[in-house]
User: Fold these one by one.
Assistant:
Number 1:
Amino acid sequence: MPAELRDTFGRLHNNLRISVTDRCNLRCTYCMPEEVSFMERQELLTFEEIARFVRIAATLGINKIRLTGGEPLLRKDLAKLVRLLVGIDGIQDVGLTTNGMLLGDQAQALWDAGLRRINISLDTLDAERFRQLTRRDGLERTIDGIMAARRAGFDPVKINAVAIRGITDHEVVPLARFAREHGLQMRFIEYMPIGADEWERDKVYYAHEILEQIEGEIGPLVPASDYDPRAPAMEFEYIDGGGRVGIIASISRPFCNHCNRLRLTADGKLRNCLFALDEIDVKGFLRTSQQDDALVEAIMRSVATKWEGHEINTARFIKPLRTMHTIGG
Ligand code: SF4
């Protein structure tokens, strides 16, 4: 039986988010600056190093993996890493979060490699608004990517949309309609202070406002019957059977008391929270020793020193130095 990664608040950790690159082909204003220097290739963990880390983490109870970036599909041959990870004893589930721009060409290969869960980031259906938000063109390619994921067999295909007051709050209903039309699942995300921009609390568009808009313009929602309280998203179903909507309310309804996640950055730092102010370098261990003990100890220490939760709603909050694209969300 794998050991248990339980922290001092009794939370069991079985979920590891792995950023495979800090590079991205978009420049979302709430995530990264226009001008950015990316990590050198040799700074990134190799697929073999990531697989070794996951093998060890699996012996400690990690059984769910999510691949993130930057934009993970920019990492060459990502399907090869997926194949490595799904083959590891104890790993039950491998997912991916992508901006979808490269999915048109890669969806089938990722599916064939064993990937089964996919979230695609899309904050607007308006090409001009897309350009303003991401500082790049690409709406069509993202929508092509969504359809390619559907064709490859991914079901559900989840769409992540950051709701920002005065910027994307009016996109809630068009996106929700788009998702109903194409059998997709929306995930609306409250705007968090983890990007390169100056976060303003006034710009947070809250979960209850998102729900009110959808119920007011599309139809009534009820809590989903199989809602998992440990999952970040609160899940709702349309009573007319028109699908599901999830809301990740990190600001108004933090879910830290059920947190089961650890994060591994592309340059080999282990973080026990998205907003952590410190991290443990595991790349050194992976590159200098075949002994796994140091890695086991590092993972256990990361969990043992985990705080109760983010402090965004307190005067103590300190924004981490790393921005979203170097953590992986
Ligand atoms: S903010 Fe940190 S503790 Fe809270 S749910 Fe996210 S990762 Fe977990």
Note: The longest helix spans residues 139-152.
Number 2:
Amino acid sequence: MFFQIEHKDKNCNARTGKINLEHGVVEVPVFMPVGTQASVKALTQEELEDIGTTIILCNAYHLYLRPGLETLSVAGGIHPFMSWEKPILTDSGGFQLFSLAHLNKVTNEGVIFQSHIDGSRHHITPEKMIQFQMDIGADIIMSFDECTPYPVSHKDAEKSMRRTIVWEKKGFEYWKERNEQSHSQLFGILQGSVYEDLRIKCAGELCGIDFPGFAIGGVSVGETDEERHRITEVSAKLLPENKPRYLMGVGAPEDVLWAIRCGVDMFDCVMPTRNARNGCLFTSHGKLNIRNARFVRDFNPLDEECTCPVCKRYTRAYLSHLYRAKEILAFRLNTLHNVYFMLKLFEKVRQAIREDRYLDFYNDFFSKYNIGN
Ligand SMILES: [Zn+2]
């Protein structure tokens, strides 16, 4: 069985479960570190394994352009290429295509664009994007979708959503035909921006299709926290109960923990890794900026509650020094801690749900964790 729900919290919609994939079992709720270009920036695959990563995300748009299908095929797929034997989810790259590439033409058939790397011209169809993700052997693959900007009028949001639905249906048909020779599981993506009626319409079109799982897309694009929480809640309710639900691109603890209450199972976000490189570190009391002068002679661990290799060994003063001296080690240690923080948070989340105390856990967490910090 692809997805099994193991326990539903008695007091909210949070749930634990298992996703069975070709390269392993993923326990949910899960946080997936982002390895856009087949690398979680600053960490090695060994380090990711050592801190308990069960699945990572790579980006099909980037991998399509570089190293490209030929290299990945000769390598035997994305797993052997990067020497990662656990599950990989590939994002189809709609978001990156729309934000990085020079677009020439967008139609119901697909997109003609110029690469952000070398200006080369490409024609991508929804079928081709599914094909690429299947060919490189990703465990979970995403429908090709149009990234709706924010803010957007209701009319434009609907137009964009309609196009995405056409693309998703084409991608699904392609996937279904090839599915028997492949282990890649295709997820549908719910769009509709911040408009509840559009989310409902989109779900009406897509939820009847037998995608193995569904994602909530078009969030974390600049909307307010309230809008994000409302759309998450509305969308999660619209998606089938018996399939994994994935909230794309959302990773701040305050958003993630809210979404888990609503029954969302999977998350990815560049925030832990990107923040780390900017010196912004997660702690049980909220975010801390290691650039701050008060850490120069602070010989305490980064987070006294954290059991990561960084907090066990190094002090805030040392991390502060590394950052100021622009040592490569600063990026490495900061990233290791932030990714560990997220993985550990999710371990605690799963335990709390299993014991029907997720809401208590939620309240306890935010009684200490300062969001505005
Ligand atoms: Zn730590």
Note: The chain has a mean pLDDT of 96.
